[in-house]
């Protein structure tokens, strides 16, 4: 009898030592149910469950399953790789440099300030477009300041020169704005410029929507690059949501009542009253609707249970 019980509980996955202890305490004639209860009470687990409980380095999750281990998180959910959740940045280099130079000097330092601002936020894809002829020595009609910054950004694979050449002594320049909009559109990123690109909006209807929704304007305040906190207006997204692929909705905050304790609206008041924390903030009509809905819902659930 003892051996048959040992074999039975061994097949269930319990250890021989735990089984021997229980049989010794309860006796050889103990029922299987009693032995099982005692094993569970002792905290003994089948070996299969113990192996599952041990954290494994790599766990395969069935397709379509939403369950994930606490140690493994999708990229972007935690702060480990925020670059995947941030939009690519395409900077209109000429526009930024001329804005920083008060439309008189092509200030390369302004480009560096803009690039540093996005780098500090965690953006990894940053491209700056500048016409190729800006590599040439500065002239009186087109002065350039801190030209060495362009070389450094080019080495970092941040700055891209749009093509230009000379034909019979005249400079032929490709339209750099088209490069900027095209790359930003293909990458589903953000255009950093104070230009509205109206000619390109009329050229392509898809570009028109993209420029309207993804254009980030800016200002320079005491050598500080400052984009607006509300890029699409007061009722649009915040700057952090505008620059991220997965916008975070703000939590609803109750606005405190301007009348405070002197308010005479009672439960009908739509504002927040801290002194009425334990009272319902619903109106009388909403309270009546809620009370009438609850019994009906309970009745339907009871009917479903009886049918089943």
From TrEMBL:
Query: Looking at the keywords, is Zinc present?
Result: yes
Write out the similarity annotation.
Answer: Belongs to the ZC3H12 family.
- Needed cofactors: Mg(2+)
What does the UniProt keyword field contain?
A: Endonuclease, Hydrolase, Magnesium, Metal-binding, Nuclease, Zinc, Zinc-finger
Q: Which gene encodes it?
A: Zc3h12d
In Pfam terms, one family for this protein is RNase_Zc3h12a
Gene Ontology terms, MF aspect: hydrolase activity; mRNA binding; RNA endonuclease activity; zinc ion binding
Task: Show the InterPro entries listed in the entry.
Answer: Rege-1_UBA-like, RNase_Zc3h12_NYN, ZC3H12/N4BP1_RNase_Reg, Znf_CCCH
Q: Which organism is it from?
A: Rhabdornis inornatus
Q: Where in the chain are the C3H1-type zinc fingers?
A: 251-276
Q: What is this protein called?
A: ZC12D ribonuclease
């Amino acid at each position: 009898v003892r051996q048959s019980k040992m074999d039975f509980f061994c097949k269930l996955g319990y250890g021989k030592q735990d089984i021997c202890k229980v049989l010794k305490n309860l006796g050889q004639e103990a029922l299987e149910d009693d032995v099982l209860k005692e094993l569970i009470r002792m905290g003994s687990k089948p070996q299969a469950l113990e192996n599952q409980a041990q954290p494994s380095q790599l766990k395969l999750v069935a397709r379509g399953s939403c369950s994930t281990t606490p140690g493994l998180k999708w990229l972007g959910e935690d702060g480990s790789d925020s670059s995947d959740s941030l939009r690519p940045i395409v900077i209109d280099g000429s526009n930024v440099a001329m804005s920083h130079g008060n439309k008189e000097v092509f200030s390369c330092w302004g480009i560096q300030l803009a690039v540093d601002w996005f780098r500090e936020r965690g953006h990894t894809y940053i491209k700056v477009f500048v016409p190729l002829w800006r590599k040439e020595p500065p002239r009186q009609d087109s002065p350039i300041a801190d030209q060495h910054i362009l070389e450094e950004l080019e080495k970092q694979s941040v700055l891209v020169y749009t093509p230009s050449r000379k034909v019979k002594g005249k400079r032929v320049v490709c339209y750099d704005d088209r490069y900027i909009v095209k790359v930003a559109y293909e990458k589903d990123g953000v255009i950093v410029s104070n230009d509205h690109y109206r000619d390109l909006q009329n050229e392509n209807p898809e570009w028109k929507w993209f420029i309207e929704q993804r254009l980030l304007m800016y200002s320079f305040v005491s050598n500080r690059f400052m984009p607006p906190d509300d890029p699409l207006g007061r009722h649009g997204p915040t700057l952090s949501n505008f620059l991220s692929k997965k916008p975070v909705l703000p939590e609803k905050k109750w606005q405190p009542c301007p009348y405070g304790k002197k308010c005479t609206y009672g439960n009908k008041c739509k504002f927040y009253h801290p002194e009425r924390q334990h009272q319902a903030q619903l109106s009388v009509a909403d309270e009546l609707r809620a009370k009438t809905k609850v019994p009906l819902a309970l009745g339907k659930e009871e009917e479903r249970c009886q049918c089943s």
